[in-house]
Design brief:
This protein is α+β, with helices and mostly antiparallel strands. It has ten helices and 14 strands. It has two domains: about 220 residues, no CATH class; about 100 residues, no CATH class. Strand 6 and strand 7 form a beta hairpin. The longest helix has 22 residues.
Length: about 400
């Protein structure tokens, strides 16, 4: 059970910045901080926020005000962090106007979507022979190739020696869900968003709660690199569906989605399904009905399989995996994208099913190709076997 509890590894913090461009269109950019080792507490969050706002101000000089939204994790929902935000506003010259907390299981769709893309990118990097053992390796994996659209990654280290707020006297922190930071450095708080006038705490009251937090001074080992293209945010029309319906028994039924405006892509390598909402993506992953467009890859594998059968020098699955990565078109460009790469285990199953298919159809020409469903079944069997192996180990 050590695989599921007390996990150790590299830490990262993902922040999605949503803004309007000069044409008043909604855009988003993602900024990731990778760490070799870090304690996930309020001071780490404060250090990340200060560095992030400084960088946003650098790349988007017109930004003068920001509003922050996060989940209710203890490192975010605490008085230590709130008491440090006015100082961050002063040092970065960007006014933090408000801090709001999302409801449970809601509010992080954009972060979850980008995390899925970056995890897919890292899995592809490892499948291609790369290693991810340090925060620098993680940064390199995410930005490899064309990177992830709208995502920039840095490597940093928290300087805990600059932490000055050790404790505070702010009471009732757990009941607060919304904060507004006023121009006179007072803070107005609410238990529920925009219900009533709220309670305002003056600057003098806040100063009596704790000492002042000076510059956090996070050490940046590798500055932000990656795609500097801003992603688009399409407003959802009322008549658009959520990609799921309910059958007569009240169970969720997945709907097909081919609309180009869908922004949540399936993290499964090779799957081309996309969805309008993150909840629909989660339903798709739950159902496991992945859609692979691998016709050219199947033709390539079948071709090298046939050559091996005719020549007597059969190609091993590991050699086939390497040939997929090395295959080139006449113009010198890669024949297959990184997302189409298969590992030796997947190719072994494909060759096995192709052999069985040939034996059953001995009267058919040798160039009979497997159907899409056959290759999907191979991948599904591999995934099921992996899950069973993990269950048996634990």
């Amino acid at each position: 059970m050590t695989d599921f509890f007390g996990q150790k590894g590299l830490s990262w913090h993902v922040a999605v910045v949503i803004f309007k461009d000069l044409e008043n269109s909604l855009k988003h950019r993602t900024f990731v901080h990778c760490f070799h080792s870090v304690k996930q507490d309020w001071f780490t969050v404060a250090s990340i926020l200060e560095n992030l706002i400084e960088h946003v101000k650098k790349v988007m000089p017109s930004v003068s005000k920001v509003s922050i939204r996060s989940d209710n994790a203890g490192c975010y929902h605490c008085g230590h962090l709130w008491l440090s935000l006015n100082g961050i506003s002063e040092r970065t010259a960007v006014k933090i106007q408000s801090y709001n907390y999302s409801e449970r299981q809601s509010g992080k769709s954009y972060c979850d979507s980008k995390i899925a893309h970056m995890r897919c990118k890292m899995r592809t990097f490892v499948a291609g022979g790369g290693n991810i053992q340090t925060a620098n390796d993680m940064q390199g994996a995410i930005v490899s190739g064309k990177g992830v659209t709208g995502c920039q990654v840095s490597v940093a280290r928290i300087d805990t020696s600059t932490q000055q707020i050790k404790s505070h006297k702010w009471k009732g922190v757990s009941h607060i869900s919304n904060l507004q930071f006023n121009e006179d450095e007072s803070i107005t708080v609410w238990k529920a968003y925009n219900i009533g006038t709220g309670k305002t705490l003056s600057k003098q009251e806040l100063m009596g709660y704790s000492s002042q937090q000076e510059e956090t001074g996070m050490k940046v080992e590798e500055d932000f690199v990656g795609s500097d293209i801003s992603g688009n945010i399409h407003k959802k029309n009322n008549n658009e569906s959520n990609n799921t319906t309910t059958d007569v028994n009240g169970s969720l039924v997945e709907e097909d989605s081919t609309c180009p405006s869908h922004v949540f892509q399936c993290p499964e390598i090779g799957c081309v399904k996309t969805y309008q909402t993150h909840s629909s993506l989660k339903n798709h992953v739950l159902f496991g009905r992945h859609e692979f467009k691998l016709e050219h890859l199947k033709e390539f594998l079948t071709e090298i399989f046939d050559i091996g059968e005719e020549s007597g020098e059969k190609v091993t699955p590991s050699d086939a995996a390497m040939r997929i990565r090395q295959a080139r078109l006449e113009n010198g460009s890669k024949r297959f994208s990184v997302t189409q790469y298969l590992d030796a285990a997947q190719i072994t199953s494909f060759f096995s099913r192709l052999t069985v298919s040939r034996r059953k159809q001995v009267q058919q020409p040798r160039n009979v190709l497997m159907e899409d469903e056959d290759l999907e079944a191979v991948l599904a069997q591999i995934e099921d076997q992996t899950i069973r192996d993990i269950a048996l180990e634990n």
